[in-house]
Write a structure and sequence with these properties.
alpha/beta, 9-stranded mixed sheet, single chain, 36% helix, 19 helices, 548 residues
Length: 548
């Protein structure tokens, strides 16, 4: 008889942005290091069907799974920490729940019953949580938002009911709270944490574990006070002071022995966590004696630190592996476009990364950045839109002065980037692009082929416009290499430029597959070129194995 899946629910209180996603991912890391099969899921109260239409300038990056789901950026944390490929089942938004409930009502599946939040919406939430957890020892579920929000109530009610459906011995609740520090009295205050625990209990869920986030060390007497008012044992309250790197959080959790407490409470018999590789990774990250390099990210969205989360993490992972310390400078693409001397804005950089984006704002700045990289032999890695702007830069140097993307200038004389026939007339924005894994065949002898060490790869996409095949001959004559193509040869996936140390553009998003302990091959090769540009002839390379 198969053992039942154990469910761990992670909620948050006091305020948003506390790090529930990092907490959930870190706990998953430690439990996986104990030899358990762990899956992880995000339940988001937004009424969107998925994250595809959310503004990255407000909500952070849209992370894409291998099967093409557009999700919240927390899934990127989950994949990087667990070194796993998740599916669309790991991202559950309210819009999808309500759409399914309404579709079932229209099909008569409720047999004439009045459709209500309870039991129909809560039942659908439970159904999708249980389905996602099948085949795993542990299913970690992060509940987005803050306890007390109106839109979160159906999810809180659903996980309360689930405890009775699957058995109390199979469910554990973790609540992440914040302890503010008052400078005037020089003390941490527990009242906001007490209040949010009370709100959670009023909703019917008693936390088994509390993660107490703080900017200051948490004294033992504060833990005792929080324990008294929350009815949570002191050994089940983990003080979590802001770490120097998020990758240190699994080690903090393991040091607190909360994973042992959780396993005991859920009846999980496991070995001690094997975190040696993770410790070596953190030591490498915190080693500030490495040679320094400087990489510029030509940014379109400047208002949110999380907009380019996967790109930044991929750059840093490559730097750790190459044995260098990377300073990442965000450069506003629009300012680059408006500057009298754009080259001055990127002076002193050892490499450029141009990430994806949508819309016309700042695109000319990205084209200028690609041109500067060509002129100065500056290592360049273009991702999605960054590949397209690289193609535009090469086209203009080849004499096609008004070359552009049809997305940016529908009337351009030379649409070197254009819609494919199957995208013509598509008006809906959500879920209609080329999304998820697609195969790419690499041309032997190219930088990309050497980086991967393979002839064919699968990479994740999120785009609508493509390289216009009408300009293949013209652009290859100008020095552009078509280094990667779809298996049928119809779609251009990777471009490079001849006689350049590293000028690579990918139609796909390699950043989504990078891991802190195993950088993506293209980022790794890019960082090697950056190190060489910076004069670091022989960086001390260190590849850290996969966490077990």
């Amino acid at each position: 008889m198969a053992k039942p899946t154990k469910y761990i629910f992670v909620t948050g209180g006091v305020l948003s942005g506390l790090g529930k996603g990092i907490t959930a991912a870190s706990l998953g890391t430690v439990l996986k290091a104990r030899g358990l099969r762990v899956n992880i899921q995000k339940c988001d109260p937004y009424l969107n069907t998925d994250a595809g239409t959310l503004n990255p300038g407000e909500h952070g990056e849209v992370f894409v799974t291998a099967d093409g789901a557009e999700t919240d950026l927390d899934l990127g944390h989950y994949e990087r920490f667990l070194d796993a490929e998740l599916t669309r089942a790991s991202s559950l938004m309210s819009g999808r729940i309500y759409a399914q409930v309404i579709a079932d009502e229209r099909e008569g599946k409720y047999l004439g019953k009045t459709v209500q939040i309870i039991p129909h919406v809560t039942g659908e939430i439970q159904k999708q949580i249980i389905a996602a957890g099948q085949g795993f020892d542990v299913q970690i579920v992060e509940i987005g938002g803050t306890v007390g929000d109106i839109e979160s109530l159906p999810f809180i009610e659903a996980i309360r009911q689930l405890k009775h459906k699957v058995g109390a011995e199979n469910v554990l609740y973790i609540h992440v709270v914040y302890l503010p520090y008052l400078e005037a009295s020089r003390e941490l205050k527990t009242k906001p944490a007490q209040n949010t625990v009370r709100d959670l209990r009023e909703a019917g869920a008693q936390p088994d574990v509390i993660i107490a986030r703080s900017e200051q060390p948490v004294p033992e007497h504060v833990i005792d006070k929080l324990s008294l008012f929350s009815d949570v044992a002191p050994e089940a309250i983990v003080p979590m002071q802001t770490a120097k790197t998020v990758y240190e959080v699994p080690l903090v959790l393991a040091a607190s022995q909360i994973d042992g407490f959780i396993c005991k409470k859920l009846g999980l018999r496991t070995s001690k966590p094997k975190l040696g590789d993770w410790r070596r990774l953190v030591a490498q990250i915190k080693n500030n004696r490495r040679p320094k390099v400087k990489v510029g990210v030509i940014a379109k969205y400047m208002d949110h630190e999380d907009t380019y989360m996967s790109v930044f993490e991929a750059v840093k992972a490559a730097a750790w592996a190459q044995g260098v310390w990377v300073d990442i400078e965000r450069i506003d693409a629009q300012k680059l476009e408006e500057a009298e001397s754009p080259a001055e804005l990127v002076a002193g950089l050892d490499g450029l990364v141009v990430p994806g984006g949508f819309g016309s704002r700042g695109v000319e700045g990205k084209v200028i950045a690609a041109g500067i990289a060509l002129d100065q032999n500056l290592p360049y890695l273009g991702l999605c839109l960054g590949m397209q702007t690289a193609v535009i830069a090469v086209a203009r140097r080849a004499g096609l002065k008004r070359a552009n993307s049809a997305e940016i200038d529908p009337d351009t004389q030379y649409p070197v980037i254009d819609l494919m026939p199957d995208q013509q007339g598509v008006l809906a924005k959500g879920g209609t692009m080329r999304l998820g894994n697609y195969p790419c065949r690499l041309v032997a002898g190219t930088i990309a082929a050497k980086a991967y060490g393979a002839h064919q790869v699968n990479e994740r996409h999120r785009h609508r416009y493509e390289f216009n095949n009408q300009y293949r001959d013209k652009l290859t004559e100008a020095g552009l290499k078509l280094a990667g193509l779809s298996p049928d040869g119809h779609l251009v996936e990777v471009v490079e430029f001849s006689d350049h140390p590293f000028f690579v553009g990918t139609q796909f998003h390699p950043e989504f597959k990078s891991r802190p302990q195993r950088p993506h091959p293209l980022f790794d090769r890019f960082m090697a070129a950056v190190a060489q540009k910076a004069g670091v002839d022989k960086p001390k390379r260190r590849i850290i194995g996969v966490t077990t």
